[in-house]
Amino acid sequence: MEQRNEEWKREQSRIEMIQQVIKAKLEKLQEHMGGLKEGVIELRRDFWKDVTINLDHPDDVIETFTSIKQQAELLAEQERNHRQSYQKVQQLLRLNQSPYFGRIDFQEEGEQGAEQIYIGITSLMDQEDEDFLIFDWRAPISSLYYDHSPGPASYLTPSGEIKGNIELKRQYIIKGSKLKGMFDTGVTIGDQLLQEVLGGTANTQMKSIVATIQREQNHIIRNEKSRYLVVQGVAGSGKTSAALQRAAYLLYRYRHTLTSENIMLFSPNPLFNSYVATVLPELGEDNMVQTTYQQYLISRFGKGFSVEDSYSQIEYTLTAMDEPEYKQRLEGIRFKTSVAYKEWIDDYVAKLSTKGLKFKSFYFRGELLYSSEEIHDLFYSFDTDISIPNRLKLTSEKLLKDLSTFAKIEREKDWVLEEAELLDKEDYLEAFHQTQKQEEDFDDMEQEERFLKKRIVSKHLKSIRRQLKGLQLLNIEALYRIFLLSEHVAGPKDWPEIYEYTIKQIDNRVIPYEDATPYLYLQDQLEGRKANTLIRHLFIDEAQDYSPFQFEFLRQQFPNSKMTILGDMNQAIYAHSIHAPTLLNAELEGEEKIVLTKSYRSTKQIVEFTRKMIAGGELIEPFNRNGEEPTVTEVDNFEALHKGIMDRVETLQKKGHETIAIICKTAVESQQAYEQLNKQIDVRLMKKETNAYEKGTIILPAYLAKGIEFDAVIVYNASEQQYGREMERNLFYTACTRAMHELHLYSLGICSPFISKE
Ligand SMILES: Nc1ncnc2c1ncn2[C@@H]1O[C@H](COP(=O)(O)OP(=O)(O)OP(=O)(O)O)[C@@H](O)[C@H]1O
């Protein structure tokens, strides 16, 4: 005890020493920044004073230009300096609150004595900038802390492996610069600390887990070799957490070549996007680019079509079982997301190389300029060995050349002069300015008129030019329609009904969700891929929801990206992904697979209850945190259902649970539940457009709860009727696994067969 007290005092005084260092560094930085700020202000104010402007001779112009450039560079440099110092201040302030969370004493082979390595969210040097007082958690040596227990250990550095012995491994809880807890740990990273973290209340924003990263998660975070890193992890195993810390790791590891703009996250919905958006800033990094697949599709389609959203598709598959075309729609969804459908498109594209492409016609002021037949003939006049996109390029180039000649002739026509007379004052003014810029010695009036005529014709040709330059010559919609109707090798039995449904939707300017990817894929095959080369690392969360076709599409869109693909087959909830191949189980060349089986989110009782709902669930290992047994209550009318739920909400609130989710199967059910419950308790309804939520009691459909967690979950109606079909199993499992501390199920009539009666 005595010894422990001594240790405690020693650690507390080290924290105080660190505080002193931080204080001194902050003072120095603030002084420096004050100077910088004044410098920037002064530079901005006197910018023009310090440049000599002389435009009399070409030499003077060059000199003036150089002088402005130098001044601008100086200003940019000072501003950059200021920004960097500001970031340093932020980091120091963060460190001041909680300087580190871990320590290892490492005796390196061949060295005298063990070195004490303190680990925090960022590094700190001593006053003299000679030794590290704190190591960044992402530094090579810090991996010792995550990967090893006391005893022989090694870590990798860019110049090779370093071996040695860990003599001590310690964890700290430091709040407001005070030591609140200290544990010497064994095999896993601080069961005790993890207990404490996981036992806390749910947050409306995800938290970073750097202090308690587990060994298997550390492998995901630090993996650098694989082109595709695929993580199959059970519900609550920390996939999303690992992904976010991995992004922070990559930004650190490749800090000279990679920025947050080069990393992109595809997440399941906007709500999830905002839920995870604070993790990277908490770690002192800028957030990465975040999107959803739906947003990506919409950005590609533009205004021409409205793209059915994935949730409308789910709502349909979960509610429309009694409709006559239901079976065919489902069959259509499964087929159109498969690789077989992609192969149909590939065959079609191959045929189009020699004949059959449909082109747009282009009109100028209501009159036909280029007919689709004319463009067709021009296109097929080029050698068929040249790819379709390249022939489109040649066709466009030729048309653009013709267009210039056409424009010159058109400028002399009467309509142009007539239109010129109707121009605004601004147009004239601009024409005047343009004329002033010309060096030729023309009559000004003549110049002005020429300029105006050119401008008028250009304005009318702008849209045509843009389309030609963008190689948008093809009528993709017509081609997709023809494709649907053409002869194919064996496909689904009800193909005619399936394509008729699609055509009906397209007639109404709607692209069914299952057709959106194939449509764009066809377009890209023909027009050439619009590859995004800025993104170097792509994270795909909830990867079980992506079909093999969608993945192929993404791979083409991001050809230079490495990918981290994370998901859980048991949470596949789309009609195309249930018991079907998805991105998660695809065989990818250059992939590495990591399986996570331990669940951290929920109590042991909840994990033991939910794992019986799925095949292979016995492999899921709960983290040892105890709580109450989940409950199942069967009632025989809605009144009793609502009464039971309301009483439960009250009890949960009294116990101090802050986020309580009443999870329904669909949006329709959520709306009905809301209308009933809202009359008596304070609840909020979450819809697909919702992109943030606050603490309190909320009602939402299961598919919107994906990826998120709550203190307590109440399943609104866990009856056999609602969750009885095989395709509803995963949705049910997903809903139940959102609970951290308590799970309660209410059922109108007999409860779902997915609940084990043992
Ligand atoms: N090493 C860890 N230390 C502390 N908390 C952790 C750790 N790993 C996971 N958690 C916590 O467990 C919960 C679940 O993590 P996360 O959401 O990342 O899991 P997931 O695998 O993406 O879950 P799901 O697939 O069910 O959405 C979160 O509250 C997270 O903070």
TrEMBL record:
<dbReference type="InterPro" id="IPR000212">
    <property type="entry name" value="DNA_helicase_UvrD/REP"/>
</dbReference>
<keyword id="KW-0067">ATP-binding</keyword>
<dbReference type="Pfam" id="PF13361">
    <property type="entry name" value="UvrD_C"/>
</dbReference>
<keyword id="KW-0413">Isomerase</keyword>
<keyword id="KW-0378">Hydrolase</keyword>
<dbReference type="InterPro" id="IPR014017">
    <property type="entry name" value="DNA_helicase_UvrD-like_C"/>
</dbReference>
<feature type="domain" description="UvrD-like helicase ATP-binding">
    <location>
        <begin position="212"/>
        <end position="603"/>
    </location>
</feature>
<dbReference type="InterPro" id="IPR027417">
    <property type="entry name" value="P-loop_NTPase"/>
</dbReference>
<dbReference type="GO" id="GO:0003677">
    <property type="term" value="F:DNA binding"/>
</dbReference>
<keyword id="KW-0347">Helicase</keyword>
<keyword id="KW-0547">Nucleotide-binding</keyword>
<dbReference type="GO" id="GO:0043138">
    <property type="term" value="F:3'-5' DNA helicase activity"/>
</dbReference>
<dbReference type="InterPro" id="IPR048228">
    <property type="entry name" value="HelD_bacillota"/>
</dbReference>
<dbReference type="GO" id="GO:0016887">
    <property type="term" value="F:ATP hydrolysis activity"/>
</dbReference>
<dbReference type="GO" id="GO:0005524">
    <property type="term" value="F:ATP binding"/>
</dbReference>
<dbReference type="GO" id="GO:0005829">
    <property type="term" value="C:cytosol"/>
</dbReference>
<dbReference type="Pfam" id="PF00580">
    <property type="entry name" value="UvrD-helicase"/>
</dbReference>
<protein>
    <recommendedName>
        <fullName>DNA 3'-5' helicase</fullName>
        <ecNumber>5.6.2.4</ecNumber>
    </recommendedName>
</protein>
<dbReference type="Pfam" id="PF13538">
    <property type="entry name" value="UvrD_C_2"/>
</dbReference>
<dbReference type="InterPro" id="IPR014016">
    <property type="entry name" value="UvrD-like_ATP-bd"/>
</dbReference>
<dbReference type="GO" id="GO:0000725">
    <property type="term" value="P:recombinational repair"/>
</dbReference>
<dbReference type="InterPro" id="IPR027785">
    <property type="entry name" value="UvrD-like_helicase_C"/>
</dbReference>
<feature type="binding site">
    <location>
        <begin position="233"/>
        <end position="240"/>
    </location>
    <ligand>
        <name>ATP</name>
    </ligand>
</feature>
